[in-house]
Design brief:
Elements lengths: L3 E2 L10 E6 L2 E5 L2 H36 L5 H21 L8 H29 L2 H25 L16 E3 L7
Antiparallel strand pairs: 1-2, 2-3, 3-4
Helix pairs in contact: 1-2, 1-3, 1-4, 2-3, 3-4
Length: 182
C-alpha cells in the first residue's frame, strides 16, 4: 500500500495518509509513521492469507472425505465454491499499479467471504448427513474466519491492538469517511 501526501492542503496537521477504500483513509503526521503502519498491516494481511489458505485446504479435505456420502447437488455447490476461491486467490497477486493497493486489500475480504461460503455449504451438507463431528470442526473454522474478519476491520480503523507482534506505533488521527448527497 502506498503512502499519499495531501497536495491540496500544504499546511495540514496530518499531511500523509493511506487509502483503504474510496473515502476511507488513515492520516499520519509523518511519512515514516504511515510506512510503519503499512508494514504492520501488510504483515498481518499476509499471515491472514496463509491462515485462510490453510482453512481452505482443510475444507478440500472435508469435501474429499465426504464426497461419496454427499448428494450430487451438495457436491457440485461445494466444488464450485471452492474452485472460485482459487480464482480469487490469483487476483490477489495480479495487481501491479500503485492505485491497485486498496483493491488488493479488499481482495482479502473476497477470499475470506469465499472461504466462509464454502465452509457454510459443507456444514449444511454435513448436517444433512448427521455428521456432527465434522459440523463441529467446520464451526471452528467459521470462528477463525470471523476472528480474522474482525481483526482486519479493526486494523482498517487504526487499531493495532489486534496485531500479535510487539508494537509501539500509535495512530494519531483517524479521518472518518464523509458522504454527501446532492
Amino acid at each position: 500500500m502506498p503512502v499519499y501526501k495531501k497536495t491540496n492542503e500544504p499546511k495540514a496537521s496530518h499531511p500523509y495518509y493511506i487509502l483503504f477504500d474510496i473515502g476511507q483513509r488513515l492520516e499520519f503526521k509523518s511519512k515514516r509513521k504511515a510506512q510503519d503502519y503499512i508494514r504492520k498491516i501488510s504483515s498481518y494481511t499476509t499471515d491472514s492469507i496463509r491462515v485462510i489458505n490453510t482453512i481452505q485446504k482443510e475444507l478440500y479435505s472435508v469435501y474429499l472425505e465426504q464426497y461419496f456420502k454427499m448428494s450430487p447437488y451438495d457436491c457440485n455447490k461445494a466444488r464450485r465454491s471452492m474452485n472460485d476461491y482459487l480464482e480469487d486467490l490469483g487476483r490477489f497477486h495480479g495487481y501491479q499499479s500503485r492505485g491497485d493497493a486498496c483493491i488488493k486489500f479488499i481482495s482479502v475480504y473476497s477470499l475470506l467471504n469465499q472461504t466462509e461460503d464454502s465452509c457454510k455449504l459443507l456444514r449444511i451438507a454435513m448436517k444433512r448427513l448427521k455428521d456432527y463431528n465434522t459440523v463441529s470442526r467446520l464451526n471452528g473454522y467459521l470462528q477463525m474466519l470471523t476472528s480474522i474478519y474482525e481483526n482486519l476491520s479493526r486494523l482498517k480503523k487504526g487499531d493495532l491492538s489486534t496485531v500479535y507482534k510487539e508494537s509501539s506505533l500509535t495512530v494519531i488521527h483517524k479521518k472518518e469517511a464523509t458522504v454527501t448527497m446532492t
